[in-house]
Amino acid sequence: MNELAQYLIDNIILDFEGDVTTDAVRAFLRKDDSPQARALLQKIIEEQGIDELLLALADCLTGELTKKLSTSDVTTHLVNYSEA
């Protein structure tokens, strides 16, 4: 089980679902007057969309996620699944 759990951690992919559109992201950022929001909005305009943003964010968050997941966490969920 530990080997399977580690394999799953090593190959986890983070994805976003729902209404994550360029227009939705722009609407959220337009409500925020912070310099960071303005800079991100400018970057989205320059890149003509949010595809690169979502890919980069998913890659970074996946790295953070895999640091925090342990094989015992994943094994526990595998066992719970098998017993359900």
- The N- to C-terminal Cα distance equals 17 Å
Biggest pleated sheet: none
Mean pLDDT: 93
Shape: elongated
Query: Low-confidence stretches at least 5 residues in length (pLDDT < 50)?
Result: none
- Give the C-alpha Rg: 18 Å
Number of helices: 5
Helix content: over 70%
Q: Which class of secondary structure composition applies to the elements?
A: mainly alpha
The arrangement of helices and strands along the chain is HHHHH
- Percentage of β-strand residues: under 5%
Query: How many domains, as an integer?
Result: 1
Question: How does this structure look, described?
Answer:
This protein is mainly alpha-helical. The chain has one domain (2-83). The chain is built from five helices and no strands. The chain has helices spanning 2-10, 22-30, 35-47, 51-68, 71-83. The longest helix is centred in the last third of the chain and has 18 residues, at 51-68. The two termini are 17 Å apart.
Describe the SSE topology.
Elements: H1 2-10, H2 22-30, H3 35-47, H4 51-68, H5 71-83
Which labels suit this protein?
84 residues; mainly alpha; 5 helices; 74% helix
Outline of this structure?
This protein is mainly α and about 80 residues long. It starts with a helix and ends with a helix.
